[in-house]
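Supplementary notes for students who missed Thursday's class. We covered one full example, reproduced here. Read the sequence, then the structure, then the short commentary at the end.
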Amino acid sequence: MIDSIATKSSSLSQLFQKVVLGNWAMVVYRLPGHTEPVCIVQTNGTAERLADPLDALGKKGFVIAPWSGDAAPALLVKADYSFYGWDPDAGMLEVSTLNGQGKQDELPTPTAMDAPFEEYQQQVTVIQEAIANGIIEKAILSRIVSHELPQGFDAVEALKTACQKYPNAFCYLVYVPGIGQWLGATPEVLVNVQGSELRTVALAGTKSNNQLINKELNWSIKELHEHELVRIDILRLLQKYTEQVTADGPNTIQAGNLYHLRTDFTSNT
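Structure (token representation):
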């Protein structure tokens, strides 16, 4: 039993540890260009399953969704408690009504298995054949590689490091009991809606900073083509809902030690 989710002596790291012990869900995220994060904690019930991520519109919380809806349901971590900043004392001095543990055990626990390199090579061959036969034009393949965490690893401190290293990225730490824990940083915006205006980006084509030549990047035809495939796909999707779409790009943007090609889209919904 945990009687208090945050006390005057607790840090965000301690709060995160309490949340894990309490079997609750928690999300800490920092928006691009901001210095302080938003923190939300769900203490009642299980993260809500969503048939469609858009079902979360109008609700207060944080949505986690897989690339494929068939892989797993989208989840909504509800904001039973929320605050702004790295210090829980600043927004939530003490909450003494949180007794007992959250009920999250009905969610399945996934098993992450390392993908052998030989299997990865076979998948590359399958993709190459599909491209050659005109079945697909582009694919992105990844594989799971496990690493031991260092002793005393602190997820919140790792998030702080990511925020400092990538000030223009969306940085996040997510914990859902029975599902897992994610920590990452991405420069890619899925969608940004302000009133009737919708903004999104096509981000495809990447180079490292060691590919700079006289402080300039030379994008290859292959990289420009890869970006064009993504740009056209997003444009076609937006035009299904509105004819008022403007595109700016591709432009080169920097994210950490990488450079990307980006096209910005604006439309009125």
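Commentary. Residues 90-109 have pLDDT under 50 and may be disordered. Residues 4 and 148 are 32 Å apart (CA to CA). If anything here is unclear, bring it to office hours.
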